[in-house]
Write a structure and sequence with these properties.
259 residues; alpha/beta; 2-enoyl-CoA Hydratase, Chain A, domain 1
Length: 259
């Protein structure tokens, strides 16, 4: 994007969003958060894209929030400009219309694990580690680590990471359900693309609807997901076409209950 810290590459129906701050292990600052938000909007607006992949450049997926970016903030600025802004960005990515795959090519700690946690599928390389180390700094998980991650992985597992400081290696993360697949070091992106092609070959409308239905079932996005499903259904009806025609022609609507 504008500052070069987030890159989008498109290959057919698959878009890859890459965090590109390798010298900092892709630790997130305000500029990267804003670039991620723009990337989500750009990917969603492209009608040809059916699946998105999220990964990091270099040795890390993401080391989480850059302490230098938030460590000196006033508490009120930290709460609004950092935590709430990050929530908006993560929520935007989590609710992309298309399935999102996290290719975890390096450690995913703190905000990095929260970022991986928004994906629909997580593919991890064998050497990676995941955890929520915030309490060791006197801080708490702030980008849905105690909310979305609890819904997806269970409260007790999150307690072990957030309270006990446990860090899990890839195979343990697999057995605990934190990741869906472990692959050889250096092959996460390639494996993610293969899985993305598998998804892209299926019905894109069905995939989008299934994603919304799962959001309702998990209690992650009840209101917005239900309204999105209802709006999609209503938009395909003859009644909507009649309603718009009547409004344009300044006449009473003659609804027939047509689907």
């Amino acid at each position: 994007m504008a500052d070069g810290t987030v890159r989008i590459d498109k290959n057919g129906a698959i878009a890859t969003i890459t965090l590109s701050r390798p010298e900092k292990l892709n630790a997130l600052d305000l500029g990267m958060l804003t670039a991620l938000l723009a990337a989500a909007d750009q990917v969603e607006a492209d009608p040809d894209i059916r699946v998105a992949i999220l990964t990091g450049e270099g040795r890390g997926f993401s080391a989480g929030g850059d302490i230098r970016a938030w460590g000196g903030m006033r508490p009120e600025t930290f709460g609004h400009a950092w935590v709430r802004h990050g929530h908006r960005v993560f929520e935007r990515l989590a609710t992309l219309r298309m399935p999102l795959i996290a290719a975890i090519n390096g450690h995913a700690l703190g905000g990095g694990l929260e970022l991986a946690g928004i994906a629909d599928i997580r593919i991890a390389e064998a050497h990676i580690r995941v955890g929520l180390p915030e309490a060791g700094l006197g801080m708490v998980p702030g980008w849905s680590g105690t909310q979305r991650l609890v819904k997806r992985f269970g409260a007790q597992l999150i307690r072990r990471m957030a309270l006990g400081g446990e860090v899990f290696e890839a195979n343990d993360a697999l057995s605990l359900g934190l990741v869906d697949m472990v692959v050889a070091t250096g092959s996460a992106v390639e494996s993610a693309r293969a899985y993305a092609e598998r998804i892209a070959a299926r019905g894109p409308a069905a995939s989008e609807i299934v994603k919304l239905m799962l959001a309702v079932a998990s209690g992650e996005d009840n209101g917005a997901a239900v309204e999105a499903l209802g709006s999609i259904l209503a938009a395909k009806t003859g009644d909507l076409r009649e309603g718009i025609s009547a409004f344009t022609e300044k006449r009473p609507s003659q609804f027939k209950g047509e689907w």
